[in-house]
Amino acid sequence: MADIDTIAIAPLFGPPSPARDQTDSRIMAAASGIGFMAIRDFPGDDWLTPRNRARLLAIFSLPEAEKQKLLRWNFDRTKQNVYRGWFPLQPGAVSYKEGIDMGPDIAEAGAAPSGLDAGDPLCEVTPLPPESALPGWRQAAAGYYKAMETVGNALLRSVARGLGLTETIFDKDFEGGISTLRLIRYPLRDPNGGVDLSGPDFSVIHKGEMRTIIGREHADSGFVTLLAQDGVEGLQAKNLAGEWIDVPPADNTLAVNFGQLLERWTAGRVRATRHRVIAPKQARFSIPFFYEPRVDAEIAPLSLKGAEPFEPFLYGDYLWDTATKFVEMSGVRHLRQPRRAKAS
Length: 344
What we know:
Elements: E1 6-8, H1 18-32, E2 36-40, H2 50-57, H3 64-68, E3 85-87, E4 98-102, H4 137-162, H5 171-174, E5 180-186, E6 203-206, E7 209-218, E8 224-229, E9 235-238, E10 244-246, E11 254-258, H6 260-265, E12 275-278, E13 284-291, E14 298-299, E15 313-314, H7 315-323
Parallel strand pairs: 1-2
Antiparallel strand pairs: 2-11, 3-4, 4-5, 5-13, 6-7, 7-12, 8-11, 8-13, 9-10, 9-12, 14-15
Helix pairs in contact: 1-4
């Protein structure tokens, strides 16, 4: 795993200790360096076995008619859900994937957590398959969601300590947050599907071989992404030399990368890394978890030496502006107006 450190983070869940200090140091080195790392040894890491991943990914075995019931409004105008729900394959898009985006209600027995604005599409309840269609699936999704929330909190506390800030400085903004659990399937693209795959937008040369791009190069927009892979290669990160390196899909580990908003909030001390997915020889599945604060969390300058001041803004406004630029969210931008931060 050249340039990507694999860190055992069990010390983060214990009291202050030399082991925790060392773990913090390695996390900060990864966060401020390549902006990518892999983590292992944490509460809930048993979810990362092939058997337990399969429990979550069972949703892709649903008949197409059942998946259609979960579609978002921009794919089925009879639906009420705008931000959460199913997105189908987009044959002409570079990012060739299907899947579902789920919010915190998945961990709250189908109800939106209290304190969220029911009129805000970012706070809507996720359409889910009935228990009878996938027995035990909802319970598995809830368990995984809660485990990732715990890991996300521990990592941000570690970053705070690494920045010399109070370790709980981010906690209040993430209490009642709207973290997203996404399940993705990248099928093999049909070379005769009517899309010219020979151009630079769709293909790259990797290790002397032409490979199709199935996940466009980008940096995540938010804070911390926790990615469970399915044992199939394809994810790549751009290192500090500008080279694309593989992120091996090892069992019992999460690939972790940091987002552009955290980079901005920490005055560039944490780095948002560009990454992409190139087509493997078989279908690929992935399970990213985007650790996110409340919609009304105010993003204001931190007390960091040399940090440039900026006008505070609300996370929900930022998220809507960035999320609606992705192909699976096309056509919905007008459905939410900015709430804006109150003048201090």
